[in-house]
Design goal:
8 helices, Rossmann fold, seven-stranded parallel β-sheet, alpha/beta
Length: 265
């Protein structure tokens, strides 16, 4: 593991796509890295390139976060390394198909990786961050967290968890130096599509963002103080109205009275 005086950033799902770009950008910002993924060869190649380009230390942990053993190994590392300053919970998977046409295992795999792994790693890293009163957790959700398609029931549900989980953490940590940002990408040019059941080529090219643009936008948003980031949404007022409507709806629900529209005629 890195032992220099630099702060350490841990990135899951780092061998390609969004995770690989986060690794590069955090190294550029001066962090030593711990990169986590299943694919050793690709991770080694990325690590060598980043170390050469940015002059930082890069350690690798080969782990499959779809498995109990993989989750436990990273959980143990994070629990025992209070110097970790950034955790990017990026690892995730999509299986896009109607529930009635899908094997149960596809649903369970999405839940394990998108929800359970993210939750366990966050639990593991938080005590160290809180003890230093400093740290950043970046959770990668999706625009499908707020909209379900006929083929995205489980994926949307898992990403909705990431959004709600992150909101709760933001409130919990509001009076500390630990920050939580949740990022909601729309369609992004990553390898997740190859295994999702919907090929990237099926999407309108103009609707797909590059991974470089996505990560750069998300980090720029964080620098500007955003903690819930929609990288592809241009209308900031629309986001504000959505949040205001959500909070207003919640507030008006806090009554013990049945809504008049639901009373017997």
């Amino acid at each position: 593991m890195p032992t220099s005086s630099r702060k350490i950033a841990v990135v899951t799902g780092a061998s390609s796509g969004i995770g690989a770009v986060y690794a590069d950008r955090l190294a550029k910002r001066g962090y030593d890295l711990v990169l986590i993924a299943r694919r050793s060869e690709r991770l080694q190649s990325l690590a060598a390139k980043i170390a050469r380009t940015h002059g930082v230390k890069v350690a690798l942990m080969i782990a499959d976060l779809e498995t109990e053993a993989g989750q436990a190994s990273i959980e143990q590392f994070l629990s025992n390394n209070s110097a970790v300053s950034v955790l990017v919970n990026n690892a995730g998977i999509a299986r896009l198909a109607p529930i009635s046409d899908s094997p149960l295992q596809d649903s369970l795999t999405q839940i394990v990786l998108n929800i359970t792994a993210l939750t366990r790693l966050t639990h593991a890293v938080l005590p160290g961050m809180k003890s230093r009163n400093e740290g950043l957790i970046i959770n990668v959700s999706s625009v499908l967290a707020v909209n379900s398609l006929p083929i995205s029931s489980v994926y949307s549900g898992s990403k909705a968890f990431v959004l709600a989980f992150s909101r709760g953490l933001q409130h919990e940590l509001a009076d500390t130096g630990v920050k939580v940002q949740v990022v909601l990408p729309a369609a992004t040019a990553t390898e997740i599509w190859d295994r999702s059941g919907v090929p990237l080529a099926a999407l309108a090219p103009e609707s797909v963002m590059s991974t470089d643009d996505l990560v750069d936008a998300a980090l720029s948003a964080f620098d500007k103080g955003e903690n819930i980031t929609w990288p592809s949404v241009a209308d900031a007022e629309l986001i504000e109205r959505f949040e205001s409507a959500r909070l207003a709806l919640f507030a008006t629900s806090q009554t013990g009275k049945v809504a008049p529209r639901l009373l017997p005629a």
